[in-house]
Design goal:
- There is one protein chain.
- Strands 3-5-4 form a three-stranded mixed sheet, covered by helices on one side. A two-stranded antiparallel sheet has the order 1-2.
- The chain has 154 residues and is of the alpha+beta class.
- α2 crosses α3 and α3 crosses α5.
- It contains five helices and five strands, in the order αβββββαααα.
- The protein binds zinc ion (ZN).
- The site of zinc ion (ZN) has 4 residues, from α2 and α3.
């Protein structure tokens, strides 16, 4: 009977290893995203998917999953990394606010001011975007800086 106990534990340990080492694998420039749920660390699964958004975070029974759409893979490595941190912001805070997710990315991505300037110009040069992003790329960045003005000099 004890032998039966050991086998499932070994399988469980192997599963945890696979999840923790592969959660961002195959997604270029995606960053590991670890969130705390009920006091336990949870490695957020990250996967490609057939979605129109660059990326999105969905919650299943309170547990987040990040999915990356085709557009994500067309972005520059810098913008992909920023987008990945943005999604991890949604995943770790549960906050759907797009400006707050940008601030999370800026706070946690360890970007240089020069890199932030590139990200800023990319968004400011974009035309219409969905209302939750402020309606235009310029508004998207303005709304971001309204929540984290410490990056206004970049
Ligand atoms: Zn978002």
């Amino acid at each position: 009977m004890k032998r039966n106990m050991i086998v499932p534990l070994a399988i469980a340990a192997a599963s945890i290893f696979v999840v923790s080492s592969a959660q961002a694998q195959g997604i270029p420039d995606a960053v590991p995203c670890v969130v705390s749920i009920n006091g336990a660390q949870f490695f957020v699964p990250q996967q490609p998917g057939m979605i129109s958004a660059w990326a999105q975070t969905q919650f299943w029974n309170g547990y987040p999953t990040i999915t990356y759409g085709q557009m994500y893979f067309q972005l520059s490595p810098l913008l992909r990394r920023f987008t990945s941190f943005h999604e991890c912001g949604h995943a770790s805070t549960g906050n759907p606010d797009e400006f707050a997710a940008n601030c999370y990315a800026l706070d946690n991505g360890n970007f240089s001011c020069a890199q932030i300037s590139v990200i800023r110009k990319f968004y400011q040069s974009r035309g219409p975007v969905a209302p939750q992003y402020g309606g235009t790329g310029a508004n998207f960045w303005a709304g971001t800086l309204a929540q984290c003005p410490q990056y206004s000099n970049c």
